[in-house]
Design brief:
By secondary structure, the chain is an alpha+beta fold. Helix content is about 30%, strand content about 30%. It has a 5-stranded antiparallel beta sheet. It is globular and about 45 Å long.
Length: about 160
């Protein structure tokens, strides 16, 4: 398994995950070689990220038409560890690795039915003003919620 620069110890890193989103690999996500097209893994990470945001209650405000705040992906990376095949069931884990003043660094771990890691990833999400496009700081309440989430959540 390749070493990712955001993971210093894989076993310790894996212990920090609690929240996951389950999905089945659909036929349309398979490429000509019979495994998941690499771009679909970014969609899997998006699905898990949105599920996490819903759990945190963020999508109620971010999804509202009159919302001042919206989330944007600042960067996203993925490391592929094993092939993913049609009809596999995956658990896509996501955790808040670090919360900044207006951003969060999320880490991802994809696990197949054999409990084998198939991908890892990380990415930064920034809360910005819909009007100005500039970063907006988290409210104190939300910042506390973000900081406490990884210790309390278990899906």
């Amino acid at each position: 398994m390749a070493r990712q620069d955001y993971i210093s110890n894989m076993e310790e890193w894996k212990k920090g995950f609690h929240f996951f989103h389950e999905l089945n690999v659909r036929f349309g996500e398979i490429d000509g070689f019979g495994h998941v097209n690499n771009t679909n893994v970014f969609i899997y990470m998006e699905e898990a990220r949105i599920a996490l945001f819903k759990e945190l209650g963020l999508m109620r405000s971010w999804g509202a038409r009159d919302s001042e705040e919206i989330p944007v992906v600042a960067d996203l990376q993925c490391d592929y560890l094993a092939q993913i095949m049609y009809d596999e069931k995956l658990k896509v884990y996501v955790k808040i690795y670090e919360a900044g003043s207006s951003s969060i660094d999320l880490h991802y771990l994809g696990i197949n039915e054999e409990n084998k890691p198939v991908f890892t990833g990380r990415g930064a999400i920034v809360q910005i003003s819909r009007e100005s496009g500039r970063p907006l700081k988290w409210s104190e309440t939300l910042k506390k919620q973000l900081e406490n989430f990884s210790q309390k959540a278990h899906i």
